[in-house]
């Protein structure tokens, strides 16, 4: 009788462990999907910001270029055209960021860094562990309780 009960309990325990593993896996998959969606939304916001900034900077660049060109012609001083060059580089960068292939080149460079220079990605003091987080939490909680007294 005890053997049958033990066998039944072992079976139930195994089913419960499989169920917990399945739930953990589902939770992990949902977490990964959620983080990826958040990353995609943040990237979309960054691209949208670049496009919006480009509109304003493009207007400024156009007005500045026309004004500087007219001033250089009117005053016969070609040196007044000099600011157009650095502003042009900034405009080109913003254009590439908003509508060009900058994001693809950055992704390729990031993948290259992750593959060949992975040591540059290490965090100071290493990856946080449960113990280090708990130690900081306890220190903070003991400090706040000390300050309350």
UniProtKB/TrEMBL annotation:
GO cellular component terms, semicolon-separated: plasma membrane
UniProt keyword annotations, A-Z: Membrane, Receptor, Transmembrane, Transmembrane helix
Top-level taxon in the UniProt lineage: Eukaryota
Gene Ontology biological process terms, A to Z: positive regulation of plasminogen activation
Keyword Transmembrane helix set for record: yes
TM regions (residue ranges): 53-73, 79-104
Matches recorded under InterPro entries: Plg-R(KT)
Name of the featured protein: Plasminogen receptor (KT)
Lineage: Eukaryota, Metazoa, Chordata, Craniata, Vertebrata
